[in-house]
Amino acid sequence: xxxxxxxxxxxxxxxxxxxxxxxxxxxxxxxxxxxxxxxxxxxxxxxxxxxxxxxxxxxxxxxxxxxxxxxxxxxxxxxxxxxxxxxxxxxxxxxxxxxxxxxxxxxxxxxxxxxxxxxxxxxxxxxxxxxxxxxxxxxxxxxxxxxxxxxxxxxxxxxxxxxxxxxxxxxxxxxxxxxxxxxxxxxxxxxxxxxxxxxxxxxxxxxxxxxxxxxxxxxxxxxxxxxxxxxxxxxxxxxxxxxxxxxxxxxxxxxxxxxxxxxxxxxxxxxxxxxxxxxxxxxxxxxxxxxxxxxxxxxxxxxxxxxxxxxxxxxxxxxxxxxxxxxxxxxxxxxxxxxxxxxxxxxxxxxxxxxxxxxxxxxxxxxxxxxxxxxxxxxxxxxxxxxxxxxxxxxxxxxxxxxxxxxxxxxxxxxxxxxxxxxxxxxxxxxxxxxxxxxxxxxxxxxxxxxxxxxxxxxxxxxxxxxxxxxxxxxxxxxxxxxxxxxxxxxxxxxxxxxxxxxxxxxxxxx
Length: 511
Known about the structure:
Layout: H1 8-22, H2 38-51, E1 62-75, E2 78-85, E3 88-95, H3 96-99, H4 101-106, E4 115-124, E5 130-133, E6 136-141, H5 157-162, H6 164-170, H7 172-194, E7 198-199, E8 205-206, E9 218-221, E10 226-230, H8 235-244, E11 248-256, E12 268-277, H9 281-297, E13 304-307, E14 310-313, E15 319-322, H10 323-331, H11 342-351, H12 362-373, E16 382-388, E17 404-412, E18 415-422, H13 427-442, H14 453-459, E19 466-472, H15 473-480
Parallel strand pairs: 3-5, 7-11, 15-16
Antiparallel strand pairs: 1-2, 1-4, 2-3, 4-5, 4-6, 8-10, 9-10, 11-12, 12-19, 13-14, 16-17, 17-18, 18-19
């Protein structure tokens, strides 16, 4: 709970707001029809100036811009203001004789943080800065809270996440990250639609938790008097669409997992899932390379992506190697196989200081060793293939090895970016695997899949062979914006509740 007690600066600003109201001025304005953004106004001036015969003392026709005041400097009968909008910032030059004494007096009651509209011609100052000579200034919204000290003083990381609205005002590079995120999402949708995939929407509330191995968030529907789950993944509903006759579908939307929070995990995250009928793991492996390279090329045409002081090379084809081979190469566990005795697997885990549960099978131990000792080493794009069947209950088995499935996970910068497999479309095999998952759940595995009987029933109508793919959109955005934490690419990340004792007044300095 935030403490809303006012400090002296806030009280002073509220007093000014009341004075404006008494003088018949609306401190919260009304519609303002801009003709230009800050960047457009500068572009307009520069184009007009280039075409003008006389450059000195050149003025354009009047423009109307609006934005937030970030700096103000009074010089007697003149004043200079800088305002910022989504496109950047622009200087305002205000003369008392140009706007009148009453309007000029209004400037004394404007502060950094206030939002104003301004009308007037563009010109170039003696210092060469394109500016607007104000002929009219309108208050559109008064700010009660002061901006961070010197405008760029908002540096506390957690406070920036908690008050993203201030972060966006104070740090233009943060705005640019989310502009880039929008571009990435738009390019991914563009690519998928050009490939003939149809975008769909499936339920967020599920009667059965499934589609991935994870702990769900549980809620309750009052009218139906039934527990429901925020979706872990849209997988089982999307594959129902394949049964129904759609052949290429994708969904970009939120999924929810009731798990830990760290630099690559947020309980609420964005994922794209894709299903292509008559395909397989190989089909979506190629699609993964294509779609990520397409999105990356919009920002880095040479596919050389700077990330945290290193360069990630996205040039195709990407490396491909089996999980077992990686574990053997990087941990010296040469004896391990997908069907190893549990005792041997447990001994290897102990030797490597990898924590395991008493109920973990040899296959699960192998995966845990991979996750803890190998994943972080995979910097350039790497497809890790040949996963254990036991840990992949929705994937089709490998024809050459009964202990494996046709599945890959793709890693970049040590993080899983994508998960995909040839989809299991044998209804009775799927039923058997769900039953095995129930046994694991009864043995204490909170992340085991539940039995979705309707999904099994759907498979009994026949689902074509298919390749399925999930891509973590937030992690792709992290890569393409050089962001170290998932919180840097989610506008409002999940945070612990803040108590009144955690008051943040000291973080935002008064003017």
